[in-house]
Amino acid sequence: MNENVWAYRPIASHRTGMDLTGYKVEASDGGIGKVDKHSEDVGAAYIVVDTGTWIFGKEVLLPAGVVARVDRKEKKVYVDRTRDQIKRAPEFDKEKHLGNPDYHEEIGTYYAHPRPRPMM
Description:
Layout: E1 24-27, E2 30-39, E3 46-50, E4 59-63, E5 67-71, E6 76-79, H1 83-87, H2 94-99, H3 101-111
């Protein structure tokens, strides 16, 4: 992995201190849910997306590096992954997340694959 998938990209329009909780999340091919939790930890920033009924209530951990942009006016977070890629992602596991570096490595590796064109 040659870039930090756990950091917001400058083009994402994310500002430190911005509360993303409740923002709708849009994959490259449609809506996938809303932000349930988020973190701005340096080198470990992420959002947890509640997919609601779309994937039977699954929560997924998305590293901040997959965020293409944030629209504060519309309260939406756009990610550069498809709904199917997110559907196949490892499910968010709060226990593993809290103290298991292997879990972060697994998530980071899953999302570190080449990205499609950035959404504008």
